[in-house]
């Protein structure tokens, strides 16, 4: 485990490991622990694949640090927060009540040629038919490892290497909202229309980001996603 600065108001707690369930459980446990038992000045814990970004108010944290003298520096406060985080992890308190129980979401996806323009490429690259790619893509649940890139964008792990594909050499200037893409052995969903370089294999009409609701993101780290083949948004048949 390593703790490093992220500016003057945050620290990164990084665990050894890559994209795997064991490491990610540690990440979620620490994030949950900090939310349930925050240290002085704690503001937010943002989980990723193998790390947690911990944001804090340096003024509030500094006031709570009795070991610091008046005129304490931002670096001194940061060192104290790092000490608190180290104690939390090593004392076993990071486990707390464990990560929150994730929800499972079934997301309908149209895998037709219009919604999935890169589906033929993914199939040909892996010596499969488009139908086989869809069957593999919809055959298992995926873990939401993190939300990033844009509000509500889920980075999903657990995809079969049999349908892996590299990003586009040049990103598209506009990817339609709801597009389901593949990048390496990850899959994800674009909540909004935006530029993007993932290989597009389908599209969903399910809103992933709802600014009028709390929380606005439908998915959160620790949730599970299952994709279901669906008809085209206009009602015509999918793949």
UniProtKB/TrEMBL annotation:
Class of the enzyme per the UniProt entry, highest EC level: hydrolase
Keywords tagged on the record: ATP-binding, Hydrolase, Nucleotide-binding
Organism: Cohnella zeiphila
Protein's UniProt name: 5-oxoprolinase subunit PxpB
SMART domains the UniProt entry points to: AHS1
A GO MF term: 5-oxoprolinase (ATP-hydrolyzing) activity
Pfam families: CT_C_D
The gene coding this protein: pxpB
Domain Carboxyltransferase: 1-219
EC number(s) per entry: 3.5.2.9
Gene3D superfamilies assigned to the protein according to its UniProt record, in alphabetical order: 3.30.1360.40, Cyclophilin-like
Superkingdom to which the source organism belongs: Bacteria
SUPFAM superfamilies: Cyclophilin-like, PH0987 N-terminal domain-like
